[in-house]
C-alpha cells in the first residue's frame, strides 16, 4: 500500500469539488494507493514536457487527477485535480 501525500494546491482544488466528485476521486486514489491498475475508462497515462515524471488519469470525462508515484518509497502524491482547461492553461 502506498502512503498518500497531497500538495497544498491539490487540497485547495479538492475542496471546490462536489461531494459526489470527491467520492469518485477518493475511490480512484484508493485504487492507485493499493497498487492496482485503473480501469481503461480512467485513461491513465504518463505526462510529457514540463510535467514529465507525473501521470494523469480521468476521474470523469473532464475531471482529471495529476499524480506521481514513487515506487521505491511507496508514496503516491496527489498534485492537482480539476478540469482539463484548469490544469493545462496554455
Topology diagram in text:
Layout: E1 3-6, H1 8-15, H2 19-33, E2 45-46, E3 55-60, E4 63-70, E5 75-82, H3 84-87
Parallel strand pairs: 1-5
Antiparallel strand pairs: 2-3, 3-4, 4-5
CATH architecture: 2-Layer Sandwich
Radius of gyration: 12 Å
User: Runs with pLDDT <50, length 5+?
Assistant: none
- Using the coordinates above, name the CATH class: Alpha Beta
Instruction: Supply the CATH superfamily name.
Output: RelE-like
Oligomeric status of the shown chains?
single chain
Helix content: 25-40%
Order of helices and strands: EHHEEEEH
Proportion of residues in extended strands = 25-35%
How would you characterize the overall build of this protein?
This protein has helices at residues 8-15, 19-33, 84-87, and strands at 3-6, 45-46, 55-60, 63-70, 75-82. The protein has 90 residues and is an alpha+beta fold. The chain has a single domain, classed as RelE-like (YaeB-like fold, 2-Layer Sandwich), CATH 3.30.2310.20. It has a five-stranded mixed beta sheet. It is globular, with a radius of gyration of 12 Å. It starts with a strand and ends with a helix.
Amino acid at each position: 500500500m502506498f502512503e498518500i501525500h497531497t500538495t497544498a494546491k491539490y487540497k485547495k482544488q479538492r475542496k471546490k469539488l462536489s461531494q459526489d466528485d470527491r467520492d469518485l476521486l477518493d475511490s480512484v486514489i484508493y485504487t492507485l494507493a493499493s497498487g492496482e491498475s485503473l480501469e481503461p475508462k480512467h485513461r491513465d497515462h504518463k505526462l510529457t514536457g514540463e510535467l514529465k515524471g507525473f501521470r494523469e488519469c480521468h476521474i470523469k470525462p473532464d475531471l482529471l487527477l495529476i499524480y506521481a508515484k514513487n515506487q521505491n518509497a511507496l508514496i503516491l502524491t496527489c498534485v492537482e485535480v480539476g478540469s482539463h482547461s484548469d490544469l493545462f492553461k496554455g
